[in-house]
Amino acid sequence: QLQLVESGGGSVEPGGxxxxxxxxxxxxxxxxxxxxxxxxxxxxxxxxxxxSEGSTYYVDSVKGRFxxxxxxxxxxxxxxxxxxxPEDTAIYYCAIRLAAATSxxxxxxxxxxxxxxxxxxxxxxxx
Length: 127
Description:
Layout: E1 5-7, E2 10-12, E3 18-23, E4 32-39, E5 46-52, E6 55-58, E7 66-71, E8 76-81, E9 90-98, H1 104-107, E10 116-117, E11 121-125
């Protein structure tokens, strides 16, 4: 049984928008830090945006374009992707870790410990 389930990926033209969702139905999400990561072909996994105990982190390349949010009551996390660029093309993953154990920047280090990962959702940006 999948612990985290991402959805919302797709194909868009440059300048377009997508909203990625991460369903964490088995968790009391308020106790967890949440991170969004991406992996493009031939590149290492990258921490895109993370949130932990009210603080957020964004990698420089997405600042002002992407927004991370969460709805603990619905056990959902979101990543709003605006003004998408071809270089945003990647598989996007969500991950969680107990919030007491990590800050938002630490959560976004791809090699740092995560409790659970999702299976990923493809985002393709091309004209």
